[in-house]
Amino acid sequence: VVVWATFIAIQVVGIDAGILLGILVAIVDHVVITAKTLTIHCVSKRSRAIWTPDDYKLLNKHGYHPQSPKILTLEVIGSIFFGSSLQVLETIFEEVGLDMKTEMVENDQKLA
Fold first, then answer.
1. What is the DSSP string of the chain?
2. Half-sphere exposure in the Cβ direction for 59 (13 Å, CA)
3. What pLDDT, in 10s, does the model give residues 49-98?
4. End-to-end CA distance of the chain
5. Which of 84, 76, 77, 49 has its CA nearest to residue 63?
6. C-alpha 44: how far from its chain's center?
7. Which of 5, 41, 69, 77 is deepest in the core (most CB within 10 A)?
8. H/E element holding 83?
């Protein structure tokens, strides 16, 4: 798409303006493609620290419990832009099990 747009722009408006239009098309194409490829999902990764047996049991019982884990590892694949940052925040709130609107209102009240 970018090559064809640049070629046609060069034929229509000349070499200098055609290359400039080609660069603009390439920038827009890059932003659109990278903004769509953002994914966030929960992965099962744990700390590589060495724990005492008692600490390890406590961590497994409370931190990594299968039904209600207190520790989550989220993996972000893709680029985060200003427009997609709100989507990232909403996804994190969903994974953790919090309501974003309620949390934002409570934080606003604490700041006031």
1. -HHHHHHHHHHHH-HHHHHHHHHHHHHHHHHHHHHHT-EEEEE---------HHHHHHIIIIIS-SSS-S--EEEEES---HHHHHHHHHHHHHHHT--HHHHHHHHHHHH-
2. 13
3. 888 999 888 888 888 877 777 888 888 887 777 767 777 888 888 887 77
4. 51
5. 49
6. 18
7. 5
8. helix 82-96
